C-alpha cells in the first residue's frame, strides 16, 4: 500500500485481498463499541461503555479491572468492578 495524504490512499490491488465480514455479528458489535466509546465524556463513561459493548460480544456477568502498577511481583489490586448484580449498570 502506498499512501500520501490520509485522504488520498492508493491500494495496490495486485497484493490486496478483500475479506467480507459483513455477515459476522461480532464485527458490527465492535464497530458500535468503538463509536460509543468515542462519544464517552470521562474515564468512567469509557469503562461503562466498554463493559456494556464487550458484554454483547462475549456474554459475561461482571467486569473486573486489575493493576500491578507499583506492586511487588505476584501482587495485584482491583481497580474497577462492575456487575449487573451490584449496580445494574452492566
* Secondary-structure element order, N to C: EEHHEE
Main beta-sheet annotation: 2 strands, antiparallel
Extended strand count: 4
Helix percent band:
25-40%
Mean of pLDDT: 78
**In percent terms, what proportion of residues is strand?**
15-25%
Shape: elongated
Q: How is the quaternary structure best described?
A: single chain
Radius of gyration: 19 Å
Measured between the Cα atoms of the first and last residue, the distance is 41 Å
Question: Stretches where pLDDT falls below 50 for ≥5 residues?
Answer: none
Q: Can you count the helices?
A: 2
Quickly give the structural class. Answer: alpha+beta
If strands are numbered along the chain, what order do they take across the biggest sheet?
1-2
Give a verbal description of the structure:
This protein is α+β, with helices and mostly antiparallel strands and 90 residues long. Helices cover 32% and strands 19% of the residues. The chain is built from two helices and four strands; from the N terminus they run ββααββ. It has helices at 25-38, 43-57; strands at 2-3, 9-10, 62-67, 77-83. The chain has a two-stranded antiparallel ribbon with strand order 1-2. Strands 3-4 form a two-stranded antiparallel ribbon. A hairpin with a 5-residue loop joins strand 1 and strand 2 (9-10). Helix 1 runs antiparallel to helix 2 (43-57). The longest helix has 15 residues, at 43-57. The chain is elongated and about 50 Å long. The mean pLDDT is 78.
Amino acid at each position: 500500500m502506498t499512501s500520501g495524504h490520509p485522504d488520498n490512499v492508493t491500494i495496490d490491488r495486485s497484493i490486496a485481498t478483500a475479506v467480507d465480514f459483513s455477515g459476522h455479528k461480532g464485527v458490527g458489535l465492535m464497530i458500535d463499541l468503538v463509536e460509543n466509546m468515542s462519544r464517552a465524556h470521562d474515564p468512567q463513561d469509557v469503562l461503562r461503555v466498554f463493559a456494556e459493548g464487550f458484554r454483547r460480544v462475549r456474554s459475561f456477568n461482571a467486569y473486573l479491572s486489575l493493576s500491578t502498577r507499583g506492586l511487588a511481583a505476584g501482587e495485584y489490586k482491583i481497580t474497577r468492578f462492575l456487575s449487573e448484580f451490584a449496580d445494574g449498570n452492566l
